[in-house]
Amino acid sequence: MSQNGGVGQKALRNILQAYAVYNEQIGYCQSMNFIVGFILMVSGSREKESFWFFCALLHKCNIEGQPVMCGLNGFFTDGFPTLLRYVKVFHALMDLYMPDLHSHLEDLPDLLWINKWFQTCFLYSFPLGLCIRIWDNILADGTKFFFKAALAILKLVEQELLVLDFSEINEYFKSFNSTDSQ
C-alpha cells in the first residue's frame, strides 16, 4: 500500500470508490482508508472479499439475535452519531475506572486521541501487532471491545500520563505508533 500508484493503492482506491457508490448516504469519509487498507493487507489483497468485509463491518450484525457488531456506519455518517456515543460511553467508563486520569485528560480534545482511536479502529495510532490483537477481539467480542482496549491501554500508561502536561500528553499519544512501541 505504501508504493505511490502501486497495486495496493489501486485496490484501496477501487474499494473506497466502490463503497462510495454502494452506499451514497455515507460515501467516503476520512479514516476509512486505514480500515480498508488493513482489511486488504490481512486478506492477501483480495479486493472483492475486502469490499464485502468492509461493508459488513459498517452494518449491524446479529448472531442468534444477539448484537455482535453494532455497525460502524455511524462512525462515518453526518454528525458521527455512533462515534460520539462511543466517546461519551468511553468517558463515563474512564471516569468510573480511572477518575484521576479522566480528570487529567479532560482538557485534551477528543479529536486528538480517542476519536482517532475509535474511528480508525485503533489502526492510526498503534503498531500493527497490537492492532491485529485488538481486531481479533473486536471480531470475537463485538464493538464493546473498543472500550476494553482503550481502557486497558490507558491503564498500562496511566502513571506516566498523570505527570505529563497537555502538550506532552499529545506527543505521548502520537508516539504509540512508533516502531519501537508494542
TrEMBL record:
List the PROSITE patterns. Answer: TBC_RABGAP
What InterPro entries does its record include?
A: Rab-GAP-TBC_dom (IPR000195), Rab-GAP_TBC_sf (IPR035969), Rab_GAP_TBC_domain (IPR050302)
For this UniProt entry, the molecular function terms from Gene Ontology, in alphabetical order, are:
GTPase activator activity; small GTPase binding
Instruction: Outline the extent of the Rab-GAP TBC domain.
Output: 1-142
Q: Where is the signal peptide?
A: none
Known SMART domains for this protein?
Answer: TBC
The molecule here is called Rab-GAP TBC domain-containing protein
Organism listed in the record: Favella ehrenbergii
